[in-house]
Write a structure and sequence with these properties.
It is found in: Golgi apparatus membrane; Golgi apparatus, Golgi stack membrane. Its EC number is 2.4.1.-. Keywords: Glycoprotein, Glycosyltransferase, Golgi apparatus, Inflammatory response, Membrane, Signal-anchor, Transferase, Transmembrane, Transmembrane helix. It is a single-pass type II membrane protein. The protein is of the alpha/beta class. The protein has 2 domains: 136 residues; 159 residues, Rossmann fold. The chain is built from 12 helices and 13 strands. Helix 5 packs across helix 9. About 8% of the residues have low confidence. The site of one 2-acetamido-2-deoxy-beta-D-glucopyranose has 2 residues, from loops.
């Protein structure tokens, strides 16, 4: 009996010692200075911008001043590569030059795939699988999700909706810089103008008033927010800045209505697919033009929301920096960019 108890005690002791040693091991490992990178939460993030998107030369922003995001160091100096916490790689230049950082990749460094063009204008997405750690785009589900704009709730409600555009002289406006007969939007416009007058501005048409989109469009009741290609979530500044910020009611051509409704109230826009065709759409616009109360409903959202238009590229860099700070401990690589982005 005593022999058996002695044995049981010894086993129990051994187990306790073993568990203690494990705990101890973990504690000492966590405290060990060699692992301090993870532990000591260096909050300063150095973000290396590998290429200036489209050669953009704007000065890099101070994220603390512009967005209240502390401890971000942005640089385009590639000699910071080995100490950079993250590298932003813009898809357009990657596609053209196809050269990724050559030096060995620091193990904790994150590579961010950044792209704000639609799949139709993104070129090859092949060969990117397993290369990047974070995605950044207008597409929902991006690690750093940044739409071209969004509505922000107002602090306190406005008494009346913004700008009744009723006094406006113009009827329908459209700004188009890239005129391409293959684009759905050009085909639609060609049909639409058979039934309704559209003032077209842009490279091959008339000049903007005071060279300003907002000043030009704010003279109109409706704006054709027609995207250059039709893809999930691809809703650009044509909606946010050109139409909504200008106070014109958007007539949208892009992804389906349901997709737009994820971003703004159903009665804040007119979708071309709400109608059997350009003729029916034109009739409806003319109907609204004669019916103030009905038109005004499309501006009802302005009582509760204001428009935020994202700033290329200052806001993008700072949001990326914030995302890197927030995902410090996370290891991940993106395995299916093409499949996901094109879906
Ligand atoms: C981060 O870097 C800035 C500028 O290099 C420095 O002023 C600041 O003290 C640093 N903060 C931390 C927490 O290391
Ligand atoms: C990049 O950084 C290196 C090392 O800090 C420095 O010697 C060099 O002058 C910098 N280059 C530019 C263009 O600022
Ligand atoms: C405007 O919005 C308010 C609240 O969101 C709603 O109660 C009201 O019925 C709307 N008015 C119109 C004309 O749609
Ligand atoms: C980033 O992705 C690479 C390639 O898949 C991977 O080797 C590396 O461990 C990842 N790093 C982080 C910090 O997630």
């Amino acid at each position: 009996m005593s022999y058996w108890w002695g044995f049981a005690l010894a086993v129990w002791y051994a187990v306790v010692l073993f568990v203690l040693s494990l705990t101890n091991f973990h504690l000492s490992r966590l405290d060990a200075p060699t692992d301090g990178g993870l532990r000591a939460e260096k909050s300063n993030v150095t973000l290396l911008i590998w290429w200036r998107p489209f050669g953009n030369r704007d000065p890099l922003p101070d994220c603390a001043v512009r967005y209240g995001i502390q401890d971000c160091t942005l640089t385009t100096n590639r000699s910071a590569y080995t100490r950079a916490d993250a590298v932003i790689i813009h898809h357009r230049e990657l596609m053209r030059k196809w050269s990724l950082p050559g030096a060995p990749r620091p193990p904790r460094q994150k590579w961010i795939w950044m792209n704000f063009e639609s799949p139709s204008h993104s070129g090859s997405l092949i060969g990117l699988d397993g290369v990047f750690n974070l995605t950044m785009s207008y597409r929902r589900g991006s690690d750093v999700f940044l739409p071209y704009g969004y509505l922000q709730p107002r602090r306190g409600e406005r008494e009346t909706p913004q700008v009744s555009a009723w006094h406006r002289r113009g009827f329908v406006a459209w700004i188009v810089s890239n005129w391409n007969e293959q684009h759905e939007r050009v085909r639609f416009y060609r049909n639409l103008r058979r039934y309704v007058h559209v003032d077209v501005f842009g490279r091959d048409a008339r000049d903007l008033i005071s060279n300003s989109v907002v000043r030009t469009v704010s003279r109109y009741k409706f704006y054709l927010a027609f995207e250059n290609s039709l893809h999930t979530d691809y809703i650009t500044e044509k909606l946010w800045r050109n139409a909504l910020l200008s106070g014109a009611v958007p007539v949208v051509l892009g992804p389906p209505r349901k997709n737009y409704e994820l971003f703004l109230p159903a009665d804040a826009f007119i979708h071309v697919q709400d109608f059997s065709g350009p003729r029916a759409l034109a009739a409806y616009l003319k109907h609204l033009d004669r019916n103030h109360a009905l038109y005004q409903r499309y501006l009802n959202w302005t009582r509760h929301y204001s428009v935020h238009v994202t700033s290329f590229w200052a806001e993008h860099y700072c949001m990326a920096c914030r995302a890197v700070q927030a995902s410090r401990r996370q290891y991940k690589s993106v395995s299916d960019i093409a499949l996901w982005f094109q879906s």
